[in-house]
């Protein structure tokens, strides 16, 4: 009975995590970028996408510094900076991961092409008539 309760609890937890992930993908624009970067077509844009977020984070930090005296920062500025900082780090992480995934995909493609070329040359060697056949067959 305990095992059944544990299995049911794990199923409910997995279901809840799935819905949280789906909800976050629907809500957050950077999650859309994260999803796009995970595709084969979007892998090459991983590092290019993280730079604008880092620049926006730096600009928000500069805005906080120049807006009044020390300690009198507006809460919305700090929240904006924190959001941009989080997004910049998330996209930078995905940028590095996308480079690794792209290298892995290119290596797999190269390896498959190499195996295909070897198999093709082996088939051609097997189909090529031998020296004995060219001389009239011995």
TrEMBL record:
* Highest taxon of the lineage: Bacteria
The membrane spanning regions, by residue number, are 6-24, 45-64, 84-103
Per UniProt, the keywords (alphabetical) are: Membrane, Transmembrane, Transmembrane helix
- Under which name does UniProt file this protein? Sulfate permease
User: Taxonomy-wise, where does this protein's organism fall, top ranks first?
Assistant: Bacteria, Bacillati, Actinomycetota, Actinomycetes, Micrococcales
């Amino acid at each position: 009975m305990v095992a059944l309760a544990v299995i049911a609890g794990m199923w409910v937890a997995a279901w809840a995590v799935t819905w949280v992930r789906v909800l976050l993908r629907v809500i957050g624009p950077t999650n859309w970028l994260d999803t796009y970067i995970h595709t084969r077509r979007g892998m090459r844009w991983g590092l290019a996408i993280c730079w604008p977020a880092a620049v926006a984070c730096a600009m928000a930090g500069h805005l906080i510094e120049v807006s009044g005296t020390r300690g009198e920062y507006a809460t919305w500025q700090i929240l904006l900076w924190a959001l941009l900082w989080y997004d910049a780090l998330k996209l930078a992480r995905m940028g590095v991961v996308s480079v690794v995934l792209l290298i892995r995909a290119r290596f797999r493609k190269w390896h498959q092409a190499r195996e295909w070329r070897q198999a093709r040359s082996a088939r051609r060697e097997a189909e090529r008539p031998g020296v004995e056949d060219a001389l009239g067959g011995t």
